[in-house]
Structure formats: C-alpha cells, structure tokens
Design brief:
By secondary structure, this protein is mainly alpha-helical. The protein has 8 helices and no strands. It has a single domain, classed as AhpD-like (Up-down Bundle), CATH 1.20.1290.10.
Length: about 130
Amino acid sequence: MKVGQDWAKTLNPALESFMPKGFETMWPTMSAEMMEAMMGKTFNPEGLDAKSRLLLTLHGLTIMGAQAESQVRLTVRHAREAGATKQEIAETIAQAAMFGGVPAMTKAMELATEAMAEGTDKDRDE
C-alpha cells in the first residue's frame, strides 16, 4: 500500500492518502455499455463478453482473499450490471475455494452479499 501511495503522491499530492475504499465510493459501478466497451468485445469481437470476463476476475480476486475487498465488491456490482445472476456469482466464488481455500471463499461470499444488498430492486429479484 505504501508503494502505491508514494507513486500516487508523485502524480498528485492529494492522492497520498487515497485508499481503495475511496475509489469504490467515488465510482461504485460503470454502465453496462462502458463495461462492454472496456471489458467486452470492443477490442476483440470474437473474445469473451464483459460478464464472462468479470466472473473470471471475481474468481481471481476470491483466490487473493481479504487483500482485495474493495475489488470484490466492485467486481460483483459490475458483474450484476453486465447481466450475471446471483447464482452465477455464488458459483464463481464457490469454485475459487478449490484454489484459494474456504476462508477466502467465505470472505468473498460475505463481500458479494454485501455488494448485492446495496443493489436495485432488480438485483433483489434474482
């Protein structure tokens, strides 16, 4: 964290005390169109769609464990925006337990549940 803060300070002194939770608060999600442009088939029309890429990202973040809390919440919100169901998110996290262990899976499930509880009525229906 210190190295990242030092780097950020060289770019902008106000960023010295910036924390991941601050980014999450500032930019909780991006639109489905933006995600598809950034993470979907825009640059690789034959490649994975944004939802698939986000589920893969969630899998990797789950394996990383508690060091990626903000990133897990952000990725869950983005995956929901890209069309992932609660079931798909839960299965992705559960699958990661094989590689990251049950404690990492449990933490990611808690974070995902928290992120989905913040969602819209549409999110609660699925």
